[in-house]
Amino acid sequence: MARRTSRRPLTRKELRNRQPVDATRVSPYTRAGLGTRTVYVSSPSKSAIAHSVKIDRVDIRAKGSPIWQVRFEVEGNVQDHLPGQELHPQPLSRPLPGKRGASGSPGSFRPRWRSMSFQPKSQPRSPEPVVRMKGGSVRPLVVFPDDSRKILTDTNWPWDLTGKIYNSDGFAGSGVLIGDRLVLTARHVIPWNSIAKGSWWMQFIPALFGTRQPFGSSYTSDVTYYNTEDDEFNLAHDYAVMRLFEPMGSQLGYLGSISYDDDWNGEDVWINIGYPSDMGGGVEPAWQQASIFNNVSDDDGQILETMASLAHGNSGGPFFDWFNDNQVQVAGVVSSGGTIDGVLMNTLAGGDEMVELINWARANW
To answer: For the segment 305-332, what is each residue's pLDDT rounded down to a tens digit?
Structure first.
């Protein structure tokens, strides 16, 4: 049983009565007409890199505007490098720095240069292909009848804090900003096959919509997760925190987190955002409102059970809501689906251990 707390998630009716909040400052991270792109290369030890930049105008025009070719020429023995650096496994059942449970939940952050809306803008869904799966009691994730998912088009806070994750195993998932340069996702989104081979990378693109990347992207330097000391992923601890090279949370803001409370069972208040493969080609964010109908404790982790419609690509995406203390908190991340006690459902991972992992990452990174 989860501990009781006086904090509670707000209902959609309560949020509908709230007016959008406009930004009160100009972002110090943006300048008119400025665009940046970052690339990484590796070179031999102690070697210097000489470089030059050449800009040429291309005669082809798009919508009446000239196209420019920006070419970086680098001298020396260099090669492209996608920069995954270190893994930081954490022990289970041992307090990490920071308070435990709901009372010590990390808070959310909305910069004053970000506008906020409580009801997201959406667009109609494209017709979906029929997905046929072989029989069996376990499936990766489940799309239920009366599917209410919509394509998300809102770029206000906090709707644009969720992004798509690519990794060196060729696997795609979802994640959400939960710190200055921190992203919360599922542990199984980590590219374990590449790690075993000695070279890996993970890339986070917030608010990716098709080919449009309104806030750019960042690769990951470090990842922390719980060492479950077995060959299988422990469902109740299927979460990880990525450290980004770029301070995207400082620029865009981030969500907090909270340990799920039994009192919230059955409340249709949770917002899920992710990049399901069966909508928008997996490169457009989809959102839905859903409930969590049960939770099962496993040590200090939680398995949260839901009938929300989820698919490949949703893994690592958040379930969050506004709370009565005006914080926006994540209660769990999408993990997997299957039949438990004869009931077909999708599951999330959450609990005190998730909160502590985020506290550790904020304190140390």
So the answer is: 999 999 999 999 999 999 999 999 999 9
R_g of the chain computed on alpha carbons: 21
Q: Which amino acid is at 185?
A: T
Tokens for 81, please give them: 């490098």
Tokens 């239920």 belong to 144
Label residue 87 exposed, middle or buried (CB < 10 Å: 0-12, 13-18, 19+): middle
Tokens standing for residue 216: 């750019």
Q: Which amino acid would we find at residue 215?
A: F
Domain coordinates in residue numbering, the chain: 22-26+84-128+136-364, 41-80
CATH of 22-26+84-128+136-364, picked from 3.30.2350.10, 2.120.10.10, 2.40.30.170, 2.40.10.10, is 2.40.10.10
pLDDT in tens, 19-33: 999 999 998 876 555
pTM score: 0.85
Task: For residue 149, give every residue at least 6 positions away whose Cβ sits within 8 Å of its Cβ, in sequence order, or none.
Answer: 125, 276, 279, 286, 287, 288, 309
